[in-house]
RNA sequence: GCCCCCAUCGUCUAGUGGCCUAGGACACCACCCUUUCAAGGUGGCGGCACGGGUUCGAAUCCCGUUGGGGGUGCCA
């Protein structure tokens, strides 16, 4: 190996996703990552992952892996040809400082020795706000306590934004911002731009909160002698209070949703259709779209301009839809992962078709069917069950007794169990909806649950009869005593 | 305070001057179906923030007001 490694660059546009490492992956970040990903792939370009790890206080190696894993979960795979990275901002520290020095040499930046207190004092004294350019022409050199500031030129900066059109800023309202701190480290504004230049980024797609930074960064690109990238600022995600989603108040960790049983496909679909509607969705009467369709149709120009409420209820609806659309075999396999290890998988597979359409998340699977996995002979709380209103009617106890008799003989299939119960209930002149209630409570311990006869078929004759008998005893004791 | 962005049903949105009596999705309500609960089907409730213009015609264009959000760090 000789010389430097020249990165092999694919011809298309180069997008980038530049998260700073934290303990979790923000859903808002997931959305912009997805948007960058869709564009990079469709346009035959590159998705560059850059970890902005310059803030040493929050920088742990395992967090980088967390980001890569989270991205992989939503389909942004580091194995894909369009994926490049991860790059680390910390690895470009020399370039950041070199750029600052170049700006200094060209007279486009200067040293300043004012402290924050002094700046405030001047602002107060002269009645302006922020830094007033005090050191612009003092020709200070480097020194302790000296920062490097950018000399903002006069005029207007026009940012061409793919989602917002042209946004112009009067440079007079932009102060000479800091490029290099007094401790010699570069600030985000500089590092971010230098990295983008180094990585030959052509398209910056990020959240709207960065829009006010953009004129500054654009000036930096130009001062450094480069054509600025295409900008696109997508609206932020907000909570019910219409505030930017925050880690403190809101549930924003992608990993949390994953652990709560949300499907990656549903999450991706939901995130991408927040602020963007795929063509044809209205005619189809559905907002459920596959990734290939999204990738083929997503355009920045079509993204809405206003903030969107991250509505977990709608996400849940999407998730339920995706669960129902899963092929049964796949559902059984994935849902089985949510089960306690000692639960019989075959037994689960038998009941699976009956719970698939009753779910919002995969995590709810165990609680729906736990009664099928109680150890045989385990005592249920029949005293409590006996108090259920299902046993309130005078026909309840005799019906249960008759059902037990019938079930000793009936062939053990759901259909036969239903026929047997129907035969019994006719004697009491009640409908199936009512008749099944005490049986359900006796067998499952609850008044709602998966289809009864199918459940009993899976449970087996012995255990079903045992539970029915226990219930009759408990109810009998309760009513006899009162 | 200053700078910037935004504004259609509760929510996410379609809508780019006539096709809008404003469409869809989620949520909600009712009914149907039904083995409880779901799912599914049908129907319903519900919106162009306000005020001025421009135009034969405005949800769509312009101005203003109001409201919301973002940014204003030697954080990213």
Please give a structural write-up.
The chain has 482 residues and is mainly alpha-helical. It is built from 20 helices and twelve strands. Helix 12 packs across helix 13 (345-355). The chain binds one RNA strand of 76 nucleotides through strand 7, helix 5, helix 9, strand 12 and helix 11.
Summary tags:
mainly alpha; 3-stranded parallel beta sheet; 45% helix; 482 residues; 20 helices; 11% strand
Model regions low in confidence, pLDDT < 50 over at least 5 residues: 1-6
Rg of Cα set: 32 Å
Helix content: 40-55%
Shape: elongated
Average predicted confidence as pLDDT? 92
Strand order of the largest sheet: 1-2-3
N- and C-termini, Cα separation: 92 Å
Proportion of residues in extended strands: 5-15%
Oligomer: single chain
Q: Biggest sheet, open or closed, and with what strands and sense?
A: 3 strands, parallel
Q: Give the count of helical stretches.
A: 20
> How many strand elements?
12
